[in-house]
Amino acid sequence: MPSPRLASPALADYHTHTPLCHHAEGWPVDYARQAVARGLAELGLADHSPMPAALEPFDNWRMALADLPRYFEAVEQARAAFPQLPIRLGLEVDYIAGQEAWIEELAGMADWDYLIGSVHYIAPGWDVDNPAHLSRFQTQPVEEIWRLYFDAYERCIRSRLFDFVGHPDLPKKFGHWPGGDLRRFYEPVIAALAETGTAFEINTAGLRKPVGECYPSFQFVQLAREAGVPLLINSDAHAPEEVGAGFETAIPLAREAGYTEVLRWEKRNRTVAAL
Ligand code: ZN
Ligand code: FE
Ligand code: FE
Ligand code: ZN
Predict the structure, then answer these.
(1) Is 126 exposed, middle or buried (0-12, 13-18, 19+ CB in 10 A)?
(2) pLDDT of 9
(3) Is the dihedral of CA 29, 23, 264, 65 positive or negative?
(4) pLDDT in tens, 93-105
(5) Residues with CB under 5 A from ligand 4 (ion)
(6) Measured in angstroms, how far is the CA atom of residue 135 from the centroid of ligand 2?
(7) If you measure from the C-alpha of residue 22 to the centroid of ligand 1, how many angstroms do you get, rounded to a whole number?
(8) Cα(9) to centroid(ligand 1), Å
(9) Which of 22, 47, 68, 216 has a CA that sits 20 to 30 A from residue 62's CA?
């Protein structure tokens, strides 16, 4: 597949992974090559955060604490190979209530450009996006699963530990939707974003999953725009060819909701770029 250049050259892709998390392929240098081919303005790496050594083995889909130096090295290699492309150092941090002190420790381990707050765990041992736990959607009401997730997500935002939050409505991944008006889930989270000055991402990975649409849904994006919450657009690439994937869908969605700008990050300071 050729790599079409994107219509909006102002865009960055800040949510990408590396083989250090054991379920992604391609190194930052490969992602950078694709970012240049697609005409992206910036690339950011944000691999799955390490857990404290005392909690290991925690799961099989994150980097080990001991691999952090390899992560920094891989990002440096990409910077050296593509000096014309700004390459940011980020981390997709799992927000788990009670781990705030650990997350603060992680925040001090590097000169991060940004930290993404993500919720995957909605209960101990239950990462809601893991197909290994898919049967739980048969035994527990979808309403409760979404409630667990959105309550954790609000707490994640209110921790004020993160620059922006990842994939806002992840529990729809496999196509499970609660009934009725979903604003009961979205509104408390959007209020938390607005009150804490936290941004969120449109994450195009949902387009490549059974749900077949971006995270979050259009209604969420609209409500967030009305509340003045800033936005990023990211691919959540787990392979180099996914860098910038789905942006041709996400950009019109953001514009339709009224967004004209996206955020960029450097050393945890935000700047604004035209969308
Ligand atoms: Zn992942
Ligand atoms: Fe994630
Ligand atoms: Fe991710
Ligand atoms: Zn993610």
Answers:
(1) middle
(2) 63
(3) negative
(4) 999 999 999 999 9
(5) 166, 236
(6) 20
(7) 9
(8) 26
(9) 216
Q: What is the pTM of this model?
A: 0.97
The one-letter code for the residue type at 259 is: Y
| DSSP secondary structure, the chain, as one string | ---PPPS-TT-EE--B--GGGSS--S-HHHHHHHHHHTT-SEEEEEEEPPPPGGG-S--SSS--GGGHHHHHHHHHHHHHH-TTS-EEEEEEEEP-TT-HHHHHHHHTSS--SEEEEE--EEETTEETT-GGGTTHHHHS-HHHHHHHHHHHHHHHHHTT--SEE--TTGGGTTS---SS-THHHHHHHHHHHHHHT-EEEEEGGGGGSTT-S-BS-HHHHHHHHHTT--EEEE--BSSGGGTTTTHHHHHHHHHHTT--EEEEEETTEEEEEE-
